[in-house]
Fold this protein.
Amino acid sequence: MNLPIRLLPGAGESFGSYLRRTAHALGTTPRMLTTSLGLTPGETNSLLLDPATTHRIAELLGLRTSEIDDLHATRWHPTVLDLRLLGHPQRLHRPWIDTLNTRFCPWCLDENGYWRLEWRLPWICTCDDHEIWLHDHCPHCGSTQRDDAWAPRATTPVSCLSCAKPLTEATPEEADLDARRRTYAGQRLLAEEDSTIAGYPVPADTALRGWRQSIAIQRTLQRDHHRHSVEHWTAHEADRALEQAWPLIDAPDPATAAAVLRRWMLAYQRPWPFSAAQVSTFILPLRHILDDVRAIWGARGP
Ligand SMILES: [Zn+2]
Ligand SMILES: [Zn+2]
């Protein structure tokens, strides 16, 4: 069986989005389409697809297997996100991606008619094309949006999965330049360009783990315990956390990074908060800096 139509995947599109568009073009529901393609619920979430299924689906959809891979988070595996760690018991080890929900840019949806895979990444907070914040909720009913093609009802590909109203009507909010710069730095990691952390040049996957660990360090020292896990922060919440950790993440050299950490420690005024076991899970550059600061801290005391 081959489908009677073949849509071209959009640049940076997700698999869930591609399936929703295909279902819409065929006048059927996403679930009817994915069931007839022999896909299970776990296989429509745009994360990863095993090679045999990829091959089979590529033939049915009239695409190359590389085009199917590009619709999935596998496009960043393992150089940016290690997807083998998806179910890891320790949250900090899991790849930093929202495994269910997706943000959206109302203007991109309006202009392109499809969803971008990078909207699944909690650290991508703004739209670089439109210089506005990404949205986390439907402007009509407040629901979060899932990036999959398991919906039992027929909606346009740019409608809310809960209330079926157009998400393109969400009010755009201009993003400030610093927030856009942070998202841009995230996109450079995705492209595996220019990745540094705390003044050390490192591979993109290490830098990204360092981003997350820097946030964890900063929040510990601020005694800031957020009720949601990082995967479910809104764009504003995620960027706020990045903004606070940014002096460490983006330090021009290790000495500056160590100075940032010392400044945070002075505000903390408590015994050293990181156990040796904890520190051993950090990436090497952060471990170096923590060890340096700790040596001084130990001599001085809080
Ligand atoms: Zn946009
Ligand atoms: Zn809605």
Strands lie at 101-102, 126-127, 132-133, 145-146, 196-197, 200-201.
